[in-house]
Amino acid sequence: MAKGTSISASSFGFEYWLNKAVEWGQTTTFESQQDVCLHLPKLQEFLKQIYEAIQHMNTTPVLKLFPLIGQLLGRLCWNPFVVAHEESQQNLLQCLWCLYSAEPENAVELKANEWIWTSLQSLTGVDHEVRSFIQSLQYPEEEYHSKLLTNMVSSLVKELQGYQCDRSSLFLRLVYSTMENGVDRKKIFLSEAAVMSLWLRYLPSLEQAIFHLIETLISHPCASLLEVEAIITDSLLPKAAAYHPSLFRVLDNFFRATLLDSDGHPKIITIIQVFTQCFVQALLQVQPQMPLKLYFPYNHQSLVMALLVHPSEMPSTAWSQHLISIIQILKGIVQDKEVTRTSANLFENWFLLVHFGDWVNVALQQLMTADDISEMLLWLLMFFFEPHMENQQESNLLENVKSVYSQIKILSNKSTLNLEDLRTALFTGNLYTEQSHLKDLINHLLVSFLLFSAGGHRIAKESVQLFMLAGAATGGISELLASTAHRLKNKRRGTSEDDKVQSTIELLQQQLLETQSERVQSNHLLH
Using CA atoms in the order 96, 97, 98, 101, what is the torsion angle rounded to 10 degrees? Predict the structure, then answer.
């Protein structure tokens, strides 16, 4: 409408439509319903005119021009026939946007904002009266609510495209609120592009999606990593991260903070590793390919590229050489004398290794199947479990770990083996104690021995008590067993030896569960 034109509520027929809204709200007869349907085209035109008149005005002037606009829009928001119609609903939303104040200047605008938010939420709700109304029409309530939410979010997404005004935060907040109500409960299904668009524009919605994913994976134990993988893929987050590097960095920072807050909990490490696998699979579908530096800005690209190759993508005969390449690059980075050995530098490289933990898993297997002692593989494991070691401390511990590893390797070649032999080997040098920083490493060497040596298979069942004897955190052991099982299932060509390993994994998992259950019962009786 041109500037300077004199407009008033009466010139829009405002009173007529307010009377209609009151009339429609007082009766639920078939004639009243017909009347709403007959008037919907004209109502749309009226709402469009209102929107054109107020879209560039502040809230206070709008309320002076249309003192009863809140009453009219509120009544229409509660009318199921009006809001179920996509175009009428979109017209209502546009008018409500215009009344919202991003920075309220007075009590009237503050109160208007509260009322608008309540009205917007009412569009997604089904109260007792509306429920009775829908039932009288013999229309399935779930279907009505589903279509209502779908129409609403679709309208909101259309509004978001290219919208630059200061009211966008209310667009975004409402889209997310509606999605949380509908999408997360599987009541509506939005396009992937719509969901990603929201995550890109409204960071709280992305953060909540990540938090919801982690909470789901932690609070509902999964039977296998295959189930974890399915849940992560279904969240759409790996695909969004692959197509939008900025989203990946937000996700990665969230994982970084969660890992630090949990003090490196094995479950969180597993979630990060499975998420990374899903992300890499999605990354392969992105065309054109984007520079890896956009995703991993703090890491050497040669190391990223080496780790990106999954063990399942190459024959097992090539694992050893590829691991040596990874270790040479990593060791060169963290021991570079020209680069300051800062905690941040060490953490970023350790965190990258956490993402691609299958290679650490493979290193454990290689240590048990190799003929000779590999100090490089032991160094990789030591860095993974204790990245902040000083050079002298590293040398001393490496010798101690080599001693334990050598004892275990000797046992792997014995034709007859008993539990006492293994106990003696593990407690050599007092490394396997409550105070040792590398107890987790030795636990993992023990698991690798049980899985990948003939002697280990034979005493696997009895060996579980060794973990308990040393007060081991069985969570890390359980995660290692699960990740190893998952990795072997993903191999291109399984072998009979892999079948034996899978059987041993299942045996150890069952024994751990039974032992943990017995410990819980014992503690319960003591207290």
Answer: 110
